[in-house]
C-alpha cells in the first residue's frame, strides 16, 4: 500500500472515482521524477485503484473449496491456496486464455498492468521480498503460482564481475577452464534487444534463460518495455518453434541462484528435441558441449529440492545440487 497526498501530481487518473483528499491506493510505480511541477515533485503512477475498490472478497472458486479468494485489482484474482506459503493469481477478465494466447492477443499496456498488479500485491500489500513465481497453463487458462516463506539461501549482493547477464565473457564453468563464456549461449534469433536476451540453459537442461539486458534483480524494477519484452521473448520463441512449455519461473530474493533477474522457460524432452532439430550445426555442437561441462560440474552442498523417492531428479545428471535425501 502507498499513502498518497494532494501535493502529488498524477500522470494518470485513477480508474475509479475518488475524492481529492488523502487516500490509500494500490500502486505500480514506474519512477519518481526529480523535476518539479509548480514546486511539486511529479510522481509517475502506472495504475492506481481507490482502496474501496481493492481486495473485494469473492466466493471460493471451484477446486479451492473454502480457500480465501479476493479481487485484488480490476484484472487480478488472488487465492490463498496455502495461507502463509502459497498464492495463486489469475487474470480476472473474460474470456479465458492460455498464457501464449494472452500475450499474443492482449494489448501491451494490459499485459504490463497485469504484472504490475501482481508485483503490487506481492511486494506492496503482502511485503514479500523472497518468493518463487511460476506461470503454468491450466484448463484453457493460465495461473501464476507464488511460493514463499521457505528456507532458501540465494545471493544477497550482486558483484558486477560475477554477473553472467552483464559480463558476456564470464566463464559459466569455473574450474573447467577455458570453460564456456556466457555470450556463447545467447540465441540471438529469439532475443529482443535492447530489452531481453534468450540463452540456452547453462546447466545443459531442457530449458532456456531469458534475462533483461539491463541489470535488475526484481520484476518491479523493469520499465514497461523491458517487462513486456522479457515475457514476449518466451512466448514468441514457443510460437516460432511450435512447442508447448511446462512452466515459466521467475525467482526473487533468496529464491534466486543468480544475481541478474532470470526468467526460466522449462520445456519437455520432446519439445527440446524439436527445438534442436531447428538449430544449425553450431548450436547443436554448443548444446553438446554444455551438457559435457554441466555433467562434470561440482555438486553444491545444498540439497536438491526436486530429488525424488526413487533416487532420481527431473534434471538428471545435469542437476548441480546434492541428492543426499528424499525431498518430495
Automatic annotation (TrEMBL):
Residue ranges covered by zinc fingers (C3H1-type): 298-326
PROSITE patterns, per the entry: ZF_C3H1
Protein name as catalogued: C3H1-type domain-containing protein
Domain of life according to the entry: Eukaryota
Species per Swiss-Prot/TrEMBL record: Adiantum capillus-veneris (Maidenhair fern)
GO molecular function, one term: zinc ion binding
Sorted UniProt keywords: Metal-binding, Zinc, Zinc-finger
Entries under Pfam families matching the protein: zf-CCCH
Annotated ranges, domain C3H1-type: 298-326
Amino acid at each position: 500500500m502507498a499513502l498518497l497526498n494532494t501535493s502529488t501530481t498524477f500522470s494518470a487518473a485513477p480508474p475509479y472515482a475518488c475524492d481529492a483528499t488523502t487516500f490509500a491506493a494500490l500502486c505500480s510505480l514506474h519512477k519518481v521524477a526529480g523535476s518539479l511541477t509548480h514546486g511539486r515533485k511529479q510522481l509517475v503512477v502506472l495504475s492506481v485503484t481507490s482502496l474501496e475498490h481493492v481486495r473485494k472478497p469473492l466466493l471460493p472458486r471451484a477446486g479451492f473449496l473454502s480457500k480465501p479468494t479476493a479481487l485484488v485489482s480490476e484484472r487480478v484474482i488472488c487465492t490463498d491456496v496455502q495461507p502463509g506459503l502459497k498464492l495463486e493469481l489469475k487474470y480476472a477478465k473474460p474470456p479465458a486464455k492460455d498464457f501464449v494466447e494472452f500475450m499474443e492477443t492482449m494489448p501491451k499496456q494490459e499485459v504490463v498492468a497485469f504484472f504490475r498488479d501482481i508485483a503490487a500485491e506481492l511486494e506492496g500489500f503482502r511485503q514479500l521480498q523472497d518468493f518463487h513465481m511460476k506461470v503454468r497453463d491450466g484448463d484453457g487458462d493460465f495461473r501464476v503460482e507464488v511460493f514463499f516463506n521457505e528456507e532458501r539461501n540465494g545471493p544477497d549482493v550482486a558483484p558486477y564481475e560475477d554477473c553472467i547477464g552483464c559480463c558476456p565473457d564470464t566463464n559459466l564453468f569455473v574450474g573447467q577452464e577455458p570453460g564456456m563464456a556466457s555470450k556463447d549461449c545467447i540465441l540471438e534469433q529469439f532475443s529482443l534487444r535492447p530489452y531481453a536476451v534468450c540463452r540456452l540453459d547453462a546447466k545443459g537442461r531442457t530449458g532456456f534463460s531469458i534475462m533483461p539486458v539491463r541489470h535488475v534483480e526484481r520484476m518491479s524494477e523493469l520499465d514497461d518495455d523491458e517487462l513486456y519484452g522479457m515475457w514476449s521473448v518466451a512466448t514468441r520463441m514457443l510460437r516460432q518453434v511450435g512447442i508447448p512449455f511446462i512452466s515459466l519461473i521467475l525467482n526473487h530474493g533468496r529464491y534466486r541462484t543468480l544475481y541478474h533477474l532470470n526468467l526460466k522457460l522449462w520445456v519437455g524432452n520432446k519439445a527440446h528435441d524439436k527445438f534442436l532439430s531447428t538449430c544449425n550445426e553450431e548450436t547443436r555442437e554448443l548444446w553438446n558441449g554444455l551438457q559435457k561441462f554441466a555433467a562434470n560440474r561440482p555438486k553444491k552442498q545444498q540439497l536438491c529440492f526436486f530429488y525424488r523417492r526413487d533416487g532420481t531428479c527431473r534434471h538428471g545428471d545435469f542437476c548441480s545440487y546434492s541428492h543426499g535425501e528424499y525431498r518430495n
